[in-house]
UniProtKB/TrEMBL annotation:
Residues 140-260 form the ATP-citrate synthase/succinyl-CoA ligase C-terminal domain. It is an enzyme of class 6 (ligase). InterPro entries: ATP-grasp_succ-CoA_synth-type, Succ-CoA_synthase_bsu_CS, SUCC_ACL_C, Succinyl-CoA_synth-like. This is Succinyl-CoA ligase [ADP-forming] subunit beta. Gene3D superfamilies: ATP-grasp fold, B domain, Succinyl-CoA synthetase domains. Residues 1-81 form the ATP-grasp fold succinyl-CoA synthetase-type domain. Belongs to the succinate/malate CoA ligase beta subunit family. PANTHER family: SUCCINATE--COA LIGASE [GDP-FORMING] SUBUNIT BETA, MITOCHONDRIAL, SUCCINYL-COA SYNTHETASE BETA CHAIN. GO terms for cellular component: cytosol; succinate-CoA ligase complex. Keywords: Ligase, Magnesium, Metal-binding, Nucleotide-binding, Tricarboxylic acid cycle. It comes from Methyloligella halotolerans. It comes from the Bacteria.
Length: 274
């Protein structure tokens, strides 16, 4: 649990320039937040005795809400002190663990799909992990770690990823097609990079999925495909014999560079690449 008298709008900047202003208490999960820890936070915030008593109760209640609702984060900002020494959570926000919503119906019932990115909502329907960004290179990758590495490599090559998209372990034709549609729904996308490392899958299966997906989805932007792992030679042969206008690459660095070049290399991209 962290707190600061400096306010929470630029907490990262405060932590960098004035780390002493960040109050931190380590909570042992098996024991939970203790009242003495809550009092320690209240005193460090510079509150008087009367305010400390009320702040301690508020902090303990916040921890219980965090724990009982399976929250990922609970932030009170601002926490205000009134002229009559009341301590009030003037505003707060919470985020919750999606995997625990089944046992928190009161939280799940408050879900409002209209507040979500429609692409992310569509991805959830197909069990795809999708997060929209503001770049121009769409990414279709299997595995969250590889997806992050792919995004980093695109940045290193001078481009900007348009999304995070993890198709998971089963990169079937249907999933690849759905992923392509999601990526293409972003008007900013000028090229697509498919980066698959076949461990659980096989490259020949993935290649067939890419080919079938391309036959069902109208792709009007360059498509860069990089395969690695089990049966990679068979997968590359399928792509080569497909007759599709694909750009293939052997390494992630090569694939990222080709994706950036396929975007038409705007002046900004050329400067970044240089």
């Amino acid at each position: 649990m962290i707190a600061s008298k400096e306010g929470g709008m630029e907490i990262e900047e405060i932590a960098d320039k004035n780390p002493e202003a960040i109050i931190q208490v380590i909570v042992e999960p098996a024991v939970g937040l203790q009242s003495f820890q809550a009092r320690e936070i209240a005193f460090d915030l510079g509150l008087n005795i009367k305010q400390v008593q009320r702040a301690t109760q508020l902090i303990m209640n916040a921890y219980r809400a965090f724990r009982d609702c399976d929250a990922m984060m609970l932030e009170i900002n601002p926490l205000v002190v009134t002229n009559d020494d009341r301590v009030v959570a003037l505003d707060a926000k919470m985020s919750f663990d999606d995997n625990a919503l089944f046992r928190n119906n009161n939280v799940a019932d408050m879900h409002d799909p209209s507040q979500e990115d429609p692409r992310e909502a569509k991805a959830q329907e197909h069990n795809l992990n999708y997060i929209g960004l503001d770049g121009e290179i769409g990414c279709i990758v299997n595995g969250a770690g590889l997806a992050m590495a792919t995004m980093d490599m695109i940045k290193h090559a001078g481009g900007n990823p348009a999304n995070f998209l993890d198709v998971g372990g089963g990169a079937s034709p249907e999933r690849i097609a759905t992923a392509l549609k999601l990526v293409l729904s972003d008007e900013n996308v000028k090229a697509i990079l498919v980066n698959i490392f076949a461990g659980i899958n096989r490259c020949d299966w993935v290649a067939k999925g890419v080919v079938q997906a391309c036959e069902t989805v109208d792709i009007k932007v360059p498509l860069v495909v990089r395969l690695a792992g089990t049966n990679v030679d068979e997968g590359k042969k399928i792509l080569a014999e497909s007759g599709l206008d694909l750009i293939t690459a052997d390494t992630l660095a090569e694939a990222a560079q080709k994706a950036v070049e396929a975007c038409g290399a705007s002046p900004e991209l050329e400067a970044a690449s240089a």
